[in-house]
């Protein structure tokens, strides 16, 4: 068992460099130059060895004056933490709460604290959608609801859900439903497509 062996600095350093999650909860490492401590599995940039200290628990690292990393959350009292899962949850929450705003991929990525390339790749790996397509689906679901419950015209609906042009709204709506907004409203009684995206 790893937690029963005497961990030398070299073993802990190798676990840190290789982001070995099997050592999570067994020790934590802190970086003098940043003032932050992490789990061994943290995907942050590998620090210089001479700037690293090791601690048996998060409390000792905090008592030594280090702050918990926001990426790997060593302060949470759980053995493993999947920052990518949380990144996806944060991105979904942001999109659902602010779909009516002018949300670019750059803006979403900067709000959740990663590069847009990293966010695009991770989000697609975890959900099957890019953030832009997910935003589009959320907006179209909202548009369907508005079309069925109000008398707003297509232009008003498009602007209300965040589109900057009528043609963008029309194209997105047709791509997702196979109908134009006015056709959807006219055939609403025949249309049973009430699927929501999670």
Question: What topology does this entry show?
Answer:
Layout: H1 9-17, E1 28-31, E2 36-38, E3 52-55, H2 58-63, E4 67-68, H3 83-98, H4 105-112, H5 116-127, H6 131-149, H7 154-160, H8 166-177, H9 181-186
Parallel strand pairs: 2-4
Antiparallel strand pairs: 1-2, 1-3
Percent range of helical residues? 40-55%
Specify the overall morphology: elongated
Count the beta strands. Answer: 4
Kindly provide the radius of gyration, computed on alpha-carbon positions and rounded to a whole number of angstroms.
23 Å
Question: What distinguishing features does this structure have?
Answer:
198 residues; alpha+beta; DNA Methylphosphotriester Repair Domain; Arc Repressor Mutant, subunit A; 4-stranded mixed sheet; 9 helices; disordered N terminus
């Amino acid at each position: 068992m790893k937690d029963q062996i005497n961990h030398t600095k070299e073993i802990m350093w190798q676990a840190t460099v290789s982001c070995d999650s099997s050592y999570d909860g067994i020790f934590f490492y802190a970086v003098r130059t940043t003032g932050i401590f992490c789990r061994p599995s943290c995907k942050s940039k590998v620090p210089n060895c001479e700037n690293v200290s090791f601690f048996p628990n998060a409390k000792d690292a905090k008592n030594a004056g280090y702050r918990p990393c926001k990426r790997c959350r060593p302060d949470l009292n759980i053995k493993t933490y999947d920052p990518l899962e949380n990144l996806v949850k944060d991105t979904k929450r942001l999109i659902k709460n602010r779909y009516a705003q002018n949300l670019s991929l750059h803006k979403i990525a900067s709000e959740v604290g990663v590069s847009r390339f990293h966010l695009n790749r991770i989000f697609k790996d975890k959900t099957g959608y890019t953030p832009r397509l997910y935003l589009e689906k959320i907006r179209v679901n909202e548009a369907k609801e508005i079309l069925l419950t109000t008398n707003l015209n297509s232009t008003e609906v498009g602007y209300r859900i965040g589109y900057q042009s009528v043609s963008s709204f029309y194209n997105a709506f047709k791509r997702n439903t196979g109908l134009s907004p006015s056709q959807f409203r006219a055939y609403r009684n025949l249309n049973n497509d009430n699927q929501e995206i999670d």
